[in-house]
Amino acid sequence: MTTYLITGVTGQVAAGVAARLAQDHDVVGVARFSDHSARSALEDAGVRCVATDLTGTDLSAVPTEVDVLANFAVLKTQRWARDLRGNARSVGLLMGHVRPAAVLHCSSTGVYRPAGATVLDEDAPLGDNHAAIMPTYSITKIAAEEVVRTMAQHLSIPTTIARLNVPYGVGPDGSARGWPAFHLAMMAAGAPIPVHPDRPNLFNPIDLRDIAATLPSLIDAASVEVTTVNWAGSEQVSLEQWCEHLAERTGLQARFEVTDATIGGVTVDTSLLASLGGSTSVQWRDGFDDLAAAYLSGS
Known about the structure:
By secondary structure, the chain is an alpha/beta fold. The chain contains 9 helices and 16 strands. Helix 1 links the parallel strand 1 (about 5) and strand 2 (about 25-30).
């Protein structure tokens, strides 16, 4: 049995990963746990919860007897000092404190320079992809990647940096999660969905089930030199296409507003992920059908 330490465990992605891993493994979840109901749900799923603020320097409550550190913690306050501490410094301090056998650091395809419909592999140029809506996000995620690479080599810890594309799906509590779920809420409110003028806005959405299923293969691929991989669904889908699909399944109306004040498409090459044994299996239409059903049952 593997012992996992999962940070950011109350987040939309990590909560589902932790609950699924806890079925067969020992899972320790780290977060601030300001939401007591979120903590209770995780504990009911078999996750041992440890309350810690990773933006600080006191990590004494975080256990060190773990096999894998899976870092999903992320801050999006748009305050530079705080987000640099929370996204970059914190993971370096955490790796030094825990010194696990392997690390999986969840990054984002938001680290790539905007490139429209160009398919981006892991060597594509980096840039301030999310500047239009989250000024600190891309830069602090790039900084975090370099901190992870430095600590992996300094401490000789096999590590994988997985750049997540658009996660979505049904959470362990049955709720619709992810950016597409936010689009559903916008439709229900009658609000237009912003789309970048460089259309179509292509992405590679990945279902939460595929995230949990492919995680072990990403850990197996970890190396001291650091393996960097696009963590994304194998199908290329436009934002416009998935919104129209969700609208059809829910009876809502998808209206779009073309604007520069949003992020453009980020579509990626998933061949490395597939070669590592991480091919995704949930077809996007099936996954979005489940998302729509979860939204309707909760509305």
